[in-house]
Design brief:
alpha+beta; about 180 residues; about 15% strand; Transposase-like_Mu_C; Transposase-like Mu C-terminal domain-containing protein
Length: about 180
């Protein structure tokens, strides 16, 4: 007889199932945090860490690029992105489309590589919101939100800061109520 193991959907399990960077590590700067995929993420406990200047394990949320996780001083910290308003709610694929469009615009205007600061990015995003590729990716991401919320429960900024004891999730999930969607690509 084969024994089975029930793995609860705890916050640590969800963090460990998130993707990581190519190297699995990022250097911790006590004042600025960690850089994951070109974004700077920070948590207040990083300022007092003993691991400052050393590489730490990192993970990021592929469906919301405003959150990343860093394993600092024996615990996973939920870090927020510096340019939170630009990336909050945007998926990794959507952000890739935005950067591709930015690079194409720079190439068309024959400009040398221009750094993206928050003012330029905000103006560019306003123009880009009407683009069809971006809107279709947003729609695909929103279709997956209902499924993720049915499994994990709704996530918002307040629930991320709450302790595990404050979170209550249903033990049973009715799979018949979930919509059938196409494969995520």
């Amino acid at each position: 007889m084969r024994t089975h193991r029930l793995i609860p959907y705890s916050e640590e399990f969800l963090i460990l199932t998130c993707p990581t960077t190519r190297t699995n590590y990022a250097k911790l700067d006590a004042a600025c945090g960690v850089v994951v995929n070109g974004f700077r993420y920070y948590h207040p406990l990083m300022r007092f860490s003993k691991e400052a200047g050393k590489p730490v394990k990192v993970r990021y949320e592929p469906f919301d690029m405003s959150r990343a996780y860093a394993f600092v001083d024996g615990q996973w910290l939920t870090c927020a992105e510096d340019a939170l308003l630009q990336v909050q709610g945007r998926s990794e694929r959507e952000w890739g489309l935005i950067l591709d469009e930015w690079r194409e615009q720079q190439r068309v205007h024959q400009r040398k590589r221009v750094g993206i600061d928050s003012a330029r990015l905000a103006a560019f995003l306003e123009d880009l919101l009407t683009e069809e590729a971006l809107l279709s990716q947003q729609q695909r991401d929103l279709e997956g939100v209902a499924i993720r919320e049915a499994i994990v429960g709704p996530t918002n900024r307040a629930s991320l800061e709450a302790s595990d004891s404050d979170l209550e999730m249903d033990d049973e999930l009715d799979l018949t109520t979930l919509p059938t969607l196409e494969e995520y690509r």
